[in-house]
Description:
The chain has 165 residues and is of the alpha+beta class. The protein has helices at residues 58-72, 113-122, 130-143, 149-162; strands at 10-27, 38-55, 78-86, 92-100, 124-125, 128-129. The protein starts with 9 loop residues before the first strand and ends with a helix.
Amino acid sequence: MWNPGFDYAAREVATLNGYRRALCVRSWVHRGTQERPGLVLGLDRGGSCRGMAFRVEAEKFGGVVDYLRERELVTHVYLERTLPVTLPDRRRVQALTYVCDRAHHQYAGGLDVMEAAMVVHAAVGRSGPNDAYVFNTVDHLREIGIRDQWLESVASEVRRMRTPT
């Protein structure tokens, strides 16, 4: 949301109904290893998700889609979907999204806060510690006015685990 990796003309907070933000994807490259997978975010069925929608100029759209497919569809744990999102002014627009494939072997849905925190606390991958990913996400969500109680609870538990008793 804070570093999309492509040029965009505008961005604004949007709501996607029918999916929620979740640490539901096992990562064994960027935030974990095969031996000790980490967890990264995905859109999982149920609830709703407030996030960021990006408007891309028509002449750049094809290149942006190619970039996103290369980035998001590496292991095919995400399914590309065009879904309606609601903008703050109540307009509904179609958005290209990547939702979790619950049948994929990387899917890790259904973890409670403590289970997720234990995984996040222990995992490190090519892009760094899994906990840094979670802390960064929570911080950036707050900066744009989005609160995610479940993710914040995971981050709090990980911080608690990092503090010597």
